[in-house]
Amino acid sequence: MTSQRSSSHRYAALDVMRGAAILGTLGTNIWIFTNVEGLVGYIGGTGRATGGWAPVQAVLQQFAQGKFLGLLTIMFGIGLVIQQRSAQRRGLRWPGGYPWRAGLLMFDGALHFLLFTEFDVLTGYALTGLVVAFILTAGMRAQRVWMVCAVTVHLAMLALVVAAVSSAPTREPQTLSPNPYADGSFRDLVVFRADNLLLFRLEVIFILTLSIALFLFGAHLFGARILDSDRGALRRRLMMAGLVVALPLDFALGLFGGDAGLLLGRYGTAPVVALGLLAAIAHRYADGREPGVTGRALSSVGRAALSCYVLQNILCSIVCYGWGFGLAARLDGTTVVPVTVVLFGAVSATLIVVSRLWLRRFDRGPLEWLTHRGCERLTGADRKRVTAPAVSSIP
């Protein structure tokens, strides 16, 4: 049997991946916050850059579009299988108390959605994790069948949506009036999200099968020892597929394919790019090297991933929305790109500094600690090792 690297090296790579995924999702969501009409304007095409900034905005948005969300989804799958293996090593049943953990994540996500961001992913991950936790109890053959079926269903739905979008007549962007993002109070935005619950949760429903597939991909890649030094051939194949083949196609679709191309990229090629990103990061640390300056910065965010994900959205809400500092309403086509880039840098730096300071005193982030303690209370002390992750991870 091939000797494996120490768990500290293996899990250091996972923390870097998770941190990259969290900051990468910020790179996508930051454009939603700096749009004066929020998610509605972002989807509707209002608030775009003008002049020479327009192509810069298009490239920057496409760089993050769907890729880091895919990476984060894969990391959830890896975290789930780590918890399963931890339970099995201790002779404990699986999924055991995990449904309680998923329920707490669902509760966190519901609050996060209502209070701060209508594009929350935590509720979707809670539902997906609950489904996949039971799938992981089946044999490998059954898991592969689930994976193939999930991918097939997702591609079929994507084809139908793309066909509908391609055949729909082009419409001029519509202004949101009244605009609760710029002019409303904190309560107004909460009510707005509640009133449009189904609309804002459509993506969670649409990508459920894709999320199941990516969770299972993550579990299987971890089982295939993607982090080990002797799995270079596997990593190179994934990097070839994701970064050499899928990435240029993804940019071509996003930049030149219109609305249909954006959909094909975000929900088609971007998840493949995410696999390539995972393989590239794993390859860098496969020889057991310690993270450098960048790696340590990402690791601290990754170790407190849940807390950093929520904190980044709280900070952006305060800065951009009308109930806070109202930054988005002050931007126009000539300023939205540079200001958004500066805001991304400032929020990223804040997450890195705060997470590093926190983790000097505590072994997990504040929301991770609350979730862990909640699971202990709900499942009992005799089951707490089932619900506690083997490493700092989410779910």
From TrEMBL:
Pfam families according to UniProt: DUF418
Keywords associated with the record: Membrane, Transmembrane, Transmembrane helix
Residue ranges crossing the lipid bilayer per the database entry: 21-43, 63-82, 98-116, 122-138, 145-168, 204-226, 238-258, 264-283, 304-324, 336-359
InterPro entries from the UniProt entry: Bact_Transport_Assoc, DUF418
Signal peptide per UniProt: none
Residue stretches making up the DUF418 domain: 233-374
Name of protein: DUF418 domain-containing protein
Species the sequence originates in: Rhodococcus jostii
